[in-house]
Write a structure and sequence with these properties.
The chain is built from two helices and 16 strands. The chain is mainly beta.
Length: about 375
């Protein structure tokens, strides 16, 4: 309650007088006699229409011995240019160009329609398929300097299952606070190392079912099942089918999320590949692969982690590779990371690899968050 006697009457200073003309020769606040820039009108509209632009650098170094699949001693592994914008109230566009030492590639480029009838969300263009978790992630988002053996052996390596196609997803009704999402995708059928399209009808298909549940205020569990099928490099009559189960557990205290958290990941993949054997007879190779990892943030700057790998090879399931890694990551800021990783790999045939990987990641500009 304010008493009437406490009200201070307005003074002449509260009502500014008529503006006076500037004194000739008197400088303005910036020390020049020119007017301040005008950011309104067409200039402001042009700025609004520009997409958010970012550049992410991935520098990788390697030391040690790897007789099978060793990276170079030093390389600028990838420079990713991101262009992202809201097209209109009903759609958004995302483009990611990958600049490597040997050329430029369109990693992803698609438009997402977010306001379709019946709650559907559609996407068209080139994109990473919704198969498992690791396949959907760009290289600079991974918590490791490399990709797991199961990705290298069964899912096409860094490129993964990535192709031009159509995608539709929808949130499904579920009880008990469970988030349930289904995704169906049809793609051209060309994913090097996995699918090969030799004629127009050789398309591939991907299906993914995701379930997410908050266990408590600080913990949650994310589970998924994926299926994909397409034609392989033997010919149109030979197909490859893939099944996968992925699980992600997160512990993130609400009041200390940037100082302390834990993320556990695991993924299992089953590859069924039809091909010709040495006698030119049709056979099927059933190869299994998996990885399990954990990452614990010690404080705001430091994170430690580890990963176990085991995977057969798609063309010869009797060949099984195993390995493990330990990691230490330093965060100078949210825009950069410095990571050291010791990697031991035992390839089929008794070939051992001992390596130390060194990675520097940095981002310039506005880079939107990746899917959770």
């Amino acid at each position: 309650m304010v008493l009437a006697s406490a009200v201070i009457p307005p003074t002449a200073e509260a009502f500014p007088a008529t503006p006076q003309a500037p004194v000739p020769g008197q400088s303005d606040l910036q020390g020049t006699s020119s007017p301040l820039p005008n950011y309104g009108g067409a200039a402001a509209m042009a700025k609004v229409l520009n997409p958010d632009i970012s550049m992410t650098g991935n520098f990788l170094g390697a030391a040690g011995h790897n007789p099978i699949n060793g990276p170079p001693a030093l390389q600028m592994s990838e420079s990713e240019l991101g262009l992202q914008a809201i097209v209109d109230p009903y759609a958004g566009g995302d483009f990611f160009l990958s600049f490597g030492e040997s050329g430029v590639d369109l990693e992803e480029g698609y438009i997402t329609f977010t306001s379709l009838p019946a709650g559907f969300v559609a996407k068209t263009g080139k994109f990473r398929a919704a198969f498992g978790k690791v396949n959907t992630l760009h290289t600079h988002v991974l918590p490791w300097a490399d990709r797991p053996l199961v990705t290298e052996n069964l899912l096409g390596g860094d490129e993964g299952i990535s192709d031009a196609g159509l995608s539709a997803s929808r949130i499904l009704p579920a009880p008990g606070g469970l988030f349930l999402e289904a995704t169906a995708q049809v793609m051209r059928g060309d994913s090097p190392g996995v699918f090969t399209s030799t004629q127009r009808s050789d398309i591939s298909a991907v299906g993914h079912l995701r379930a997410y549940k908050d266990i408590s205020d600080s913990t949650n569990l994310d589970l998924g099942y994926s299926y994909s099928r397409g034609h392989n490099d033997v010919g149109s009559a030979y197909k490859t089918q893939l099944h996968a189960i992925d699980a992600t557990f997160r512990w993130t205290p609400l009041r200390r999320t940037i100082y302390q958290n834990f993320v556990g990941r695991a993924e299992w993949v089953w590859s069924l590949r039809n091909q010709l054997n040495a006698a030119l007879l049709s056979e099927r190779q059933d190869a299994f692969g998996m990885f399990a990892s954990g990452d614990y943030r010690l404080n705001r700057r430091w994170t430690v982690g580890g990963r176990y790998d085991r995977s057969g090879r798609a063309q010869d399931a009797s060949l099984v590779d195993t390995g493990f890694s330990t990691l230490l990551t330093y965060w100078p800021s949210e825009f950069s990371q410095i990571r050291g990783q010791y990697r031991f790999t035992r390839y089929a045939g008794g070939h051992d690899a001992n390596e130390l990987l060194f990675q520097v990641l940095f981002t310039l500009g506005a880079h939107a968050a990746h899917p959770f």
